[in-house]
Input
Amino acid sequence: MGLHSEAIATMIFTLLLIYYTSLCAGFEMKTIYCTLSDSCDCDFKPDIKGLEWDLFKNLYGQHMVQDIVSEAVVNFLQDENPERPLVLSFHGASGTGKSLVSSMVGRHIYGTAMGSPYIHQYVPTLHFPSADRVQQYRSDLKKWVEGNLTACARSIFIFDEMEKMPPGVIDVLEPHLGPFHVLFQTNYRKAIYIFISTIGQDVINKLALESQKAGRDREEIRPEELDELIADAAYNTSNSGFYKSRIITKKLITRFVPFLPLRQRHVVRCAQRELCQRGECRRVDVASSVGGAMIYMPQDSPYFSSTGCKLVPAKVNLFL
Output
């Protein structure tokens, strides 16, 4: 009986070992397949209609963002063999929706905002804190990006707070962003890069203010009016990640995406959304109070919220 039980235990152990080994082998084969194949999905589940609807429903006062991001992402995802990666650069004041839109892109491509292993976020104050370590950061960033691209060609890279990144670091990605370079073992052209910064907010806000004073509807502002202004501001802003960057001079950014400053009605809508998320949709009085409690700029013509929707959750707490 003892020998019989021992034989059974040995058989079970052997089967478990085979199963575990097959899982590991399967993972390794999937990694190799993802490395060499153009059709590896890497959990790639694009929901184009969902992205378009999310931008329309939950992003307020940003008609240019809705149009640019929808068109750029949809066209890119529908191209089975793109010539270059999609590179979007988000510019505008704090609280205008830049991080919100980047999370929407991630959610509707991988079904999760930032939880996917194929979405990678870099924050300068965390990943690149010292201006005197640029060469090390360049080397590290190159390895990180190429390693992630090898694991999944459909990777998404989000670089937040570009205004705080040491100059020169981001240029190590120049070969990865253009249409001609070939990277070993990966189709690097299927990646998406999103740069987020407040760089250019002055020129964006200036145009929005001039339009407001002239009685021009904000929806009439077109991206073409801001493209060169934002590019110049990014290139010439010292002590920032884009300062004198070849990514700018070689026009490797697919689209500059300007985020306009928000009016009080937009802040009220942000407050209403926050209340609905808390099950308090009926508290229209709170949403109105939050909108009225914000600081608006400039002092002589207080049209725009100085903090956008960034402080809305805290203000909702105050008025509930």
Summary: The CA atoms of residues 62 and 109 lie 21 Å apart. The chain is about 50% helix and 10% strand. The mean pLDDT is 88.
